[in-house]
Amino acid sequence: MERSDTTGRPHVLMMSEITADGKLTLRRGASSKILMKYMAPETELLLHQTRAEYDAIMVGSNTIKIDNSFLTVRKVPGKNPLRVIPNSRADLSLDSNVLKPDAPTLIAVSERAPPERVTAIRERGVRVVSVGKEDIELPLLMHILYRDFGVKNLMIEGGPTLNWHMLRDRLVDEIRLIHLPFIVGGSDTPSLVGGMHIEDEREMIRLELTRFYLCGTNLVTEYKVLYQEGT
After folding, report:
1. Within a domain: residue 102?
2. Number of domains forming the structure of the chain
3. Which domain holds residue 154?
4. 27 in a domain, yes or no?
5. For residue range 168-210, what is the model confidence (pLDDT) as tens digits?
6. Residue 175's domain is classified under what CATH number?
7. d(CA 192, CA 177)
8. What are phi and psi of 134, to 5 degrees?
């Protein structure tokens, strides 16, 4: 794992389980936990070991609303990473597991977040930062994490929207995929990256395969993200 000490932002790993046809869930609106329960025990350990190795973990607010994840280290020894949730309107349920005191949490909001919602979240003992006027400015959030919170490395367990925005802003350095031997289909079933409508092959985000291996019965592939100048 590298550190981006010269970039002013954390080194970012995107980690996700995907089916053989590249889907993240069983269907739109379904929890990813439905598919994750079919991961090999060794792969589940790998996920928690990775969390323990990173300073922070980030998922999108829609994933929290669907999965109500804890985003903590379990099954292996280790310190819980800082939980980072971009939530521009501060509209997470106050009963969300990420607002519980079992791990530190940072909610990133925009200036349009209602002050009463921000206050209610802060009353849960959670840090809140404003990083954008209308929507979350992810490059600014990465800079704040690095500068103010000492986050040198960050993992994303995001859905397709967060994954796309992080890749679009050239903020992802590595991708690690856990391959599940299933096909679920569905033209509207969420895949690894959403929002990407390219017109030319030159716009493709290129990857370099750096490692592949079996973890239990699951294939794991690891890639370096190669951003091209001028695209």
Report:
1. no
2. 1
3. 11-83+150-226
4. yes
5. 999 999 999 999 999 999 999 999 999 877 888 888 999 999 9
6. 3.40.430.10
7. 10
8. -95, -45
pLDDT of 140-177, one tens digit each?
999 999 999 999 999 999 899 999 999 999 999 999 99
82-86 and 105-109 as β-strands: parallel, antiparallel, unpaired? parallel
Let me know if residue 177 belongs to a domain.
yes
Q: What angle do CA 120, 122, 126 make, to 5 degrees?
A: 130
Distance CA 100, CA 105 (A): 9
Question: Closest Cα partner for 51 from 177, 157, 138, 173?
Answer: 157
- Residues 6 or more apart whose CB falls under 8 angstroms from that of 210 comprise 174, 222, 223, 224
| Position 1, amino acid | M
Residue 3 pLDDT exceeds 50: no
Examine residue 67 and state whether it is found in any structural domain, yes or no. yes
Residue from 24, 19, 4, 21 nearest 193 by CA: 24
User: 4 pLDDT band (50/70/90 cuts)?
Assistant: very low
Residues 6+ away with beta carbon under 8 Å from 95: none
